[in-house]
């Protein structure tokens, strides 16, 4: 089975082709160019490098957030379109799970994405060789309340992002979407038409509107 | 005989998710528009983040429907076109990435289109453009007089120095408690009122084709404030009629001055505000009197849609103006850059 995998949830971009869950080719970038400009172009390139035709793809796997709103929307839009136009299924995976498994660290891991104002998008997973347990589900939370709930875990932070929360010890991670596929249980089959990002937050305008109701 | 050019066009620059298939630049094989107005009403205007979220929800449905209505397969298409800008950047990116993916999967050429060029070319969906022409573009984001000596040739001869005319409609609607979007509500209310306030006509006496609507907007707000303080009840129908009369006076005066100066007999009015009934009737009357060929597209082609993008894209395709898979959105693009 040949999969095309995409993660555009933060500044880093990760696009991979896997065969039977193992990486064949992967492009990882971490610079100022936007995903809007580079994603589809890099998909073409990674297929070329892997020597795979788009018609050979069996499925799409996309990181569905949380993360940058614009970033995840680009990944999701392209994934939906690829699935529909190639007539293949699309699976989603949490962007936090991508961070959790990218470095090969085992045991309790707490992947975090800085969300400013002392908040993070965070989760805790217990990662084993080929399986995992979700200890704390992905959520938008004040970092101090999350860390109070975490007894023991390695904090993992996306290496490209600015860190504004007060955290002593952590490991920098470059998200590698190719690493998610061996945890089949973390992948969720989606209806391409219905697929939307997991923002984990409603928009500010909707929050203000709700507060005024 | 040359082959028919069938273009799938996608438009997501503001709060409509739209896709259309246009044949040879003017035959509408399908035209699908999903409007988000109902969602944005509660905020009193378009919220960019909310707009972007809705585009992701709707994009694949809209494209599917456009192909289905046209009874076409992707392999029947000649090219894919998409609005490159100007517009809300987060919103534009959804259409652009959808279009790039479609072009990539089906190995089709990709045509980037200027949103305002699209509005002008909406007229071509009804009859061929005749040059030279002047187009008055009036919408929520734009107020411009554009001179075209031929296809895909744009010269801005006048533009707003502050608010767009549609923006002024929305703001005035808000102060007289009309719901968003303000344009159609003011139009309706004005029909039962009269121009009793004689609001200022911005830049009317000055030797320029530029517009200004912020003074008019402030005059309306000040007048209402003044009445309110004195405890005088204001006739909202008269406010709407007076405001609309000022706008129409300015738009007609500047446009006919430009037609005269440039010695042009063809006028196209484009953009959402072209749906305003007083504007339509005044321009129709004056054009008859002055022997100007006027074209105002029907309302569904004045507001944002993808058919107009497909109409403009036809000429860009003929001129081989294509993009590669690195195409990005731009929130501002000078239309004069789009002269090919």
Automatic annotation (TrEMBL), chain A:
Residues 30-147 form the Gcp-like domain. One of its GO terms (biological process) is tRNA threonylcarbamoyladenosine modification. One of its GO terms (cellular component) is cytosol. This is tRNA threonylcarbamoyl adenosine modification protein YeaZ. The lineage of its organism: Bacteria, Bacillati, Bacillota, Bacilli, Bacillales. The gene is tsaB.
UniProtKB/TrEMBL annotation, chain B:
Residues 27-310 form the Gcp-like domain. Its main location: cytoplasm. GO terms for cellular component: cytoplasm. It is an enzyme of class 2 (transferase). Binds 1 Fe(2+) ion per subunit. Substrate binds at residues 137-141, 170, 183, 187, 276. Keywords: Acyltransferase, Cytoplasm, Iron, Metal-binding, Transferase, tRNA processing. One of its GO terms (biological process) is tRNA threonylcarbamoyladenosine modification. SUPFAM superfamilies: Actin-like ATPase domain. Its cofactor is Fe(2+). One of its GO terms (molecular function) is tRNA N(6)-L-threonylcarbamoyladenine synthase activity. Fe cation binds at residues 115, 119, 304. It comes from the Bacteria. InterPro entries: ATPase_NBD (IPR043129), Gcp-like_dom (IPR000905), KAE1/TsaD (IPR017861), Peptidase_M22_CS (IPR017860), TsaD (IPR022450). It is found in: Cytoplasm. Pfam families: TsaD. It catalyses: L-threonylcarbamoyladenylate + adenosine(37) in tRNA = N(6)-L-threonylcarbamoyladenosine(37) in tRNA + AMP + H(+). Its EC number is 2.3.1.234. Required for the formation of a threonylcarbamoyl group on adenosine at position 37 (t(6)A37) in tRNAs that read codons beginning with adenine. Is involved in the transfer of the threonylcarbamoyl moiety of threonylcarbamoyl-AMP (TC-AMP) to the N6 group of A37, together with TsaE and TsaB. TsaD likely plays a direct catalytic role in this reaction. PANTHER family: TRNA N6-ADENOSINE THREONYLCARBAMOYLTRANSFERASE, TRNA N6-ADENOSINE THREONYLCARBAMOYLTRANSFERASE, MITOCHONDRIAL. Belongs to the KAE1 / TsaD family. NCBIfam families: gcp_kae1 (TIGR00329), T6A_TsaD_YgjD (TIGR03723). HAMAP family: TsaD. This is tRNA N6-adenosine threonylcarbamoyltransferase. The gene is tsaD.
